Amino acid sequence: GEDVEQSLFLSVREGDSSVINCTYTDSSSTYLYWYKQEPGAGLQLLTYIFSNMDMKQDQRLTVLLNKKDKHLSLRIADTQTGDSAIYFCAENPNQAGTALIFGKGTTLSVSS
Amino acid sequence: EAGVTQFPSHSVIEKGQTVTLRCDPISGHDNLYWYRRVMGKEIKFLLHFVKESKQDESGMPNNRFLAERTGGTYSTLKVQPAELEDSGVYFCASSPLSGGPNEQFFGPGTRLTVL
Fold this sequence. Notes:
The complex is a heterodimer of chains A (112) and B (115).
Chain A: E1 5-6, E2 9-13, E3 18-23, E4 31-37, E5 43-50, E6 55-58, E7 61-66, E8 71-76, E9 85-91, E10 101-102, E11 106-111
Parallel strand pairs in A: 2-11
Antiparallel strand pairs in A: 1-3, 3-8, 4-5, 4-9, 6-7, 7-8, 9-10, 9-11
Chain B: E1 5-7, E2 10-13, E3 19-24, E4 31-37, E5 43-50, E6 53-56, E7 65-68, E8 75-79, E9 88-95, E10 105-106, E11 110-114
Parallel strand pairs in B: 2-11
Antiparallel strand pairs in B: 1-3, 3-8, 4-5, 4-9, 5-6, 7-8, 9-10, 9-11
């Protein structure tokens, strides 16, 4: 089946690190993605990782991929109140140009 | 460069009525996708156009939904007649025809409420 699972809520304090976890099912996925949705806005691609990589770092964001366990995580260092949003994990099980399979989204709440 | 735009941003209709949603992709993007998110659930794929052709419509729920992309530019998604379970946020996304990470650019969505 094609299911992407995420925890629904995460609450952190400003300045702490946030870790959002995701599990996916299709081992053929070439790319895995993290999208961010702020209130009233569309989805914004935050970062993606190619399936032959274990880790990707981009400023405050670190993506870890465990292909054996089909586990993806997004770590946000020094979380800010502006990071409050819904974060969606997605996979692309087919070749480039076709549908993304999304999880239900993790709502990150950052308190000051 | 303008992003993906969608119209309307909100629509409230009664069961049995017809609604047409519009999506304008980023200029030059041949791939156009429709997705839907029902409250609290995952974002689900509806269909995929390459230019004016339907590449994949496996996610369309039933024949009450009709999508078109005449001329390969903007796309419309018509729901006729609308049912209560059609309520949700409808997202459109576009991407260029190329290999690589298939970065899809999303619009802000149309929130549809069927009463």
